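FIELD: query
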Amino acid sequence: MSVAEKTGKKSGGLGETVSVIVQALILALVIRTFLFQPFSIPSGSMRPTLLEGDYLFVTKWAYGYSRHSLPFSPNLFSGRIFGSDPERGDVAVFKYPPNPSLDYIKRVIGLPGDRIQMIDGVLNINGTPVQRVKTGEINNPDITEENRPVDVYRETLPNGVSYDTLDLTPNGISDNTREFTVPAGHYFMMGDNRDNSADSRVFGFVPAENLVGRANIIFFSISDGSSPLEIWKWPTDMRPGRLFNFVH
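FIELD: result
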């Protein structure tokens, strides 16, 4: 066999490898853009529903697609295509309105036209208090980040969606707010950790265009600030009870 023939075979092998890599990257980009995108939870604003160190998949098609569905949010079009409206109680990832380069995750509380207000720690929607029942206390620093028992309240929204919220500071500064009227094409988002969440009470309404997707399932969870790549820490820091839990 000649040197040219050998070189040709090697080039063909390299070309096939490059082709496979390119196809894999394109497939990953399509999946990330249109189907699922992984996210990690960096803060405690959604405790006890989501914890720091949770890794979850977000369904991208849930609310249709906007420019923020694409990597780097290119300004190719405005609004949403194939859009579906979020439901009250959804846990959604969105671009932070003051700085769209940042991803935030909160719960959809107010829909367009709603009036939202906190009165003495009780969420009010359109002038009606949301059902709120104390279910007990949590005394687990991995969940509350507090070295003391923390009250847990079960909230039930008008559409029947229920979830737990933390009350770190009774009569806290966020327990009483003005009334917010959600404008058309916007949503009011709140964290479940009501006294430790920078949400629509602080930064205002979230435009529909900023929605990225709906949180769907936790596929990994590790505590104590450990990285999932630190496999040697899995036996002590991984939270096996949270793996493959659906987000509600």
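FIELD: remark
Residues 150 and 168 are 6 Å apart (CA to CA).
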